[in-house]
Amino acid sequence: TTSEPERELTDGFHLLIDALKLNDLNTVYGVPGIPITDLGRMMQEEGMRVLSFRHEQNAGNAAAIAGFLTKKPGVCLTVSAPGFLNGLTALAHATTNCWPMILISGSSEREVVDLMQGDYEEMDQLAIAKPLCKAAYRVLHAEDIGIAVARAIRAAVSGRPGGVYLDIPGALLGQAMDAVEGAKSLVKVIDPAPAQFPAPAAVERALDVIKSAKKPLIILGKGAAYAQADEVVKDFVEKCGIPYLPMSMAKGLLPDNHPQSAGAARSLVLKESDVVIMVGARLNWLLSHGKGKSWGAPHSTRFVQIDIEPREMDSNVEIAAPLVGDIESCLSALTEGMGGDWKAPPQDWLDAVREKRDANVTRMAPTLQNNASPMNYAGALGALKRIIEKRPDAILVNEGANTLDFARSIIDMYKPRKRLDVGTWGVMGVGMGSAIAAAVETGLPVLAVEGDSAFGFSGMEIETICRYKLPVCIVVFNNNGIYRGTDTNRSGGEDPAPTVFVEDSRYDMMMQAFGGEGRHVTDPDALTRAVNEAMDSGKPTLINAVIDPAAGKESGNIGNLNPTSVVSKR
Ligand SMILES: Nc1ncnc2c1ncn2[C@@H]1O[C@H](COP(=O)(O)OP(=O)(O)O)[C@@H](O)[C@H]1O
Ligand SMILES: Cc1ncc(Cc2csc(CCOP(=O)(O)OP(=O)(O)O)c2C)c(N)n1
Ligand SMILES: [Mg+2]
């Protein structure tokens, strides 16, 4: 009898790897452990880049930012239960910011979880993930891995991008199947984020509203940055001649020193504009929900809103001209519809905006040139502003309260997707994950400007940065505390106030512990020298920048969001 030729087999491990690689997902951010330790080793063996972190939240934040920067889902890989939960915060953060990300977590077998029999790191992860992300799937059979990965990719990048959870029970990885059948089960996703064209009637309506404006304003949001339609955005803004306000992570879509930039005249343009064109930006808390004292009289502003998500319209205030579609398609249609005889906005409006902006810039300029020691925010950030001006390709990561708010207005950006910060939530702890992903995905130098509290959330990843020898220069604005370093314990007791840290701590010495470069500076000139040296060397560097503990203010610019007690102290 002629024996059957040995059938070649594949298994869940290899099908998952092949499915990711087939779809050009070759980088994974994660923390190893049961049941995915060998998966990470095999990914590396198959030529994927596997970056191993010290905490899954930072790996997830890296995957989230990778999604924002590349328009492909960033992939985070974790163990079950606690590892999954650590990654889930980042998955929810990605979803809140409309960035594509896939969290792949190992999990326990269904039969044990559903009977709650107490497995190692047991948790009903799929159920827990569902409400916190855009889509969540579980795979039970090896032959379904191909379609599951395809679904996860399409769910992450189509329409409004977001986070997707993919649940991988341990036993799935070991499931074997015929290699030929396995290869046939894989799916290369076709056109996962299709262009979505606006309806011609919606374009007409929007143009009519814009034409009627006496004081128009464009607000560019991080959706416009994410879209990577940079030339289309620039052409639209310059053709219509309307002043624009970039939201934090949209800075650099046009250079912040562009003649139409109204960044330094934010208060005036929000209050005075009569038509506002939202481009990939939401009227959420960051824009006072489109109402109240930051804006003109109630219902006096008419909104044109460009967004891929139809349900975003009327979320906070009435939208006079909803334009549903992707940024590129919508702006191209508007630009085309403007035709050749488009009238620029009234000159008195353009003059008012420009005069206000230039007056504010002129008033601020001298404060940015001070060499005070210990430093204040303006002096330290003035130095970093001048460095970024000379290094427009560098990526700036930024988090903190005062460290965030002052940097956002002081450090101009000149190119798209160069400023990575706390996003829609205002969440602390995204710094090191963002810095690692920025360096890995772009190969460009990264300057991370961190409040000392913000740095503390993800600071252990400086070992990760040293281990992968990433070109990241971290500047810790050390004011000995959260918002300030001068708070005192109101009870008069021994313990320090909840918002202060050890005095004169030396974060630079932490970096030296892992072989990185550590510097300690107390004035802007020394800060300038240290940052330039770090960015020229490309070596992992941490600069401990001493900031006057009294220089900050509670919660930076958003202290008003804090509830206050009306009960007098007993
Ligand atoms: N390619 C795209 N085309 C159109 N809208 C997009 C695209 N990508 C994301 N968006 C939308 O952009 C908006 C981003 O808003 P938001 O995160 O509030 O920005 P910002 O905080 O900068 O104002 C979201 O409502 C999202 O649906
Ligand atoms: C996950 C999470 N936990 C707490 C908080 C609340 C917060 C907002 S800003 C901030 C740190 C501010 O201090 P820092 O030293 O970084 O900056 P500076 O003002 O220059 O001194 C905290 C703790 C948030 N936003 N997210
Ligand atoms: Mg601080």
What secondary-structure arrangement, pairings included, does this model have?
Blueprint: E1 9-11, H1 12-22, E2 27-30, H2 37-45, E3 49-52, H3 56-70, E4 74-78, H4 82-96, E5 101-107, H5 110-114, H6 125-129, E6 135-138, H7 145-157, E7 163-169, H8 170-174, E8 176-178, H9 179-185, H10 200-211, E9 216-220, H11 222-226, H12 230-240, E10 244-246, H13 266-272, E11 275-279, E12 302-307, E13 321-324, H14 327-338, H15 347-364, H16 377-390, E14 395-399, H17 402-410, E15 419-420, H18 431-442, E16 446-451, H19 452-458, H20 462-467, E17 472-478, H21 507-513, E18 517-521, H22 524-537, E19 541-546
Parallel strand pairs: 2-3, 2-4, 4-5, 5-7, 6-7, 9-10, 9-11, 11-12, 12-13, 14-15, 14-16, 16-17, 17-19, 18-19
Antiparallel strand pairs: 1-8
The site of adenosine-5'-diphosphate has 24 residues, from helix 11.
Features of the shown structure:
single chain, 570 residues, alpha/beta, six-stranded parallel beta sheet, 22 helices, 19 strands, 38% helix, 16% strand, binds adenosine-5'-diphosphate, binds the ligand Cc1ncc(Cc2csc(CCOP(=O)(O)OP(=O)(O)O)c2C)c(N)n1, binds magnesium ion
Describe this structure in a few short sentences:
The protein is α/β, with parallel strands linked by helices and 570 residues long. The protein has 22 helices and 19 strands. The strands form 4 sheets. Strands 3-2-4-5-7-6 form a 6-stranded parallel sheet, with helices on both faces.
Low-confidence segments, given as residue ranges, are none
**Mind describing the biggest β-sheet?**
6 strands, parallel
Number of DSSP strand runs: 19
- β-sheet strand percentage: 15-25%
Helical fraction equals 25-40%
Shape: globular
Strand order of the largest sheet: 3-2-4-5-7-6
Span from first to last CA?
Answer: 96 Å
Class inferred from helices and paired strands: alpha/beta
Mean pLDDT, to the nearest integer, reads: 96
